[in-house]
Design a protein that fits this description.
It is a single chain. The chain is of the alpha+beta class. Helix content is 20%, strand content 41%. It has three helices and seven strands, in the order E-E-E-E-H-E-E-E-H-H. A hairpin with a 2-residue loop joins strand 2 and strand 3. The radius of gyration is 15 Å and the shape is globular.
Length: 153
Amino acid sequence: MSTNAPHCTVATVVERQQRYLLVLEERNGRLLYNQPAGHLEAGESLIEAAQRETLEETAWNVQIKSYLGVSLYRAPSNGVTYVRHSFAARAMGFNPELKLDQGIVEAVWLTIDEIEQAKDRLASPLVYRDILQFRENKLYPLEMAQTYIAPVS
């Protein structure tokens, strides 16, 4: 059993005109589809992290609308355990001047059929599961992902 602490990550489902915003990224010599996702940085809320990661990986500004929930996932590729908070967001605007994060080949808008056809190229099963949850309207209020900051004494 690993003694490493889980990594806290965020992921975002963004739907527009029945297409979902995914990133094509290079991992260990393979091209995989993922949601805009990444690690929580010191000092930011989960919602801020989801907005930042989406912008950095896709050049799309988004408004986080709903909470999809939390998942505990142990990646078979590296044995790392992730505590992943997933959100639903609305695309607000594209910034073509932004350079995408390292490892991201491109941001793409795919239909659910295209995603189903690419299931063997998804970065994790959580990508498809989150999209299905979104499509089933299993959304929770953002208050479930609140940030509490203790007063400095």
